[in-house]
Amino acid sequence: MQPIQQQGRRLPSANSSIARVTCSSRVFCCLTVTVQHTHSLRANGVIFSHAARDFGLESSAFLRSAGILCAAVSAIASMFMHTILPREACFCQNYATAEDSCYYISMKLLKLFASLILSFSAAAIGGIATSANIPTWYAVLEKPFFNPPNWIFGPVWTVLYFLIGISLYLIWTAKTKKSKTNAYILWGAQIVLNTLWSLVFFGLHQLWLGLAVIVLLDVCVVATILHFYKINKTAAKLLFPYMVWISFATLLNLAIAVLN
Predict the structure, then answer these.
(1) Nearest Cα to 216, choosing from 246, 180, 257?
(2) Model pTM score
(3) 155 shares a domain with 257
(4) Does 30 lie in the same domain as 95?
C-alpha cells in the first residue's frame, strides 16, 4: 500500500509512525538498561569479594578491590556506551517499538559485559598468585635497573584488561562475512597464556618456564592483532598497548631469570 499523498507532501506510513518514539522514551530506555546491567555487575563484584573472604583471601589487596573494580569497569563502559554501540541503537530509528530497541541495547550490553568479565577473570585468577608473592618472593629477587616500581603494575594491567575486553566485544559485534573462528581461538589462547604466565612465574617461581610462556604469549598476541585487523581495525589497535607492555615484560622476565 502506497503512503497517502496530501497537498504534495508525503505522509508517513503507519509503520514509520510507530517507529518514531519520543525523546523521553528513548532516554529512559537507554538509562534503564544501563542501570540494570551496572547494578548486576556491581552485585557480582560484591559476591566475588565475599567469596574470596570465605576462602581466607581477604589479605589480598587485589581481591579486596574486586568489587570496586567491577563497578568501575561497569561505570566506564556505560559512559562510553554511545561511542561503542551503533548510533541507531540509542535513537531507535530502525525499530518498531521502544521495547525492540531496548532489547537490542540489552543484547549489546550483555556482550560488552561478558567480554569484560572474560578479560578480568584472567586478572582475578592471575592476581591470586601475583598479589601474595610480590611483597615476599618477588621483592627479594635481583632485578635489572629498568625494573618499574611495584605500584605501577596494578593500574597498567587494569587498563590493559579493559582494552582486551573491549577488543573482543568489537570483534563479537562486528558485522562481516569473514569467519571469526580463528580470531576467537587466538583471543582465548592469549588470555589463557596470560593467566598461565602469572601462575608459573609468581605462583610456581619458575623464571625460565615463565619466560617460555610469555614468549608464546607474545606470538599469540601478534597473531591475534593480525586476525583482528582483518575484521575490525579498531579492535586490533586496542591491543597495541598490550603488545608493547608484554614485550617489555618479556625483557624484564629474561633479565630477572639471568640475574637469579
Answers:
(1) 246
(2) 0.65
(3) yes
(4) yes
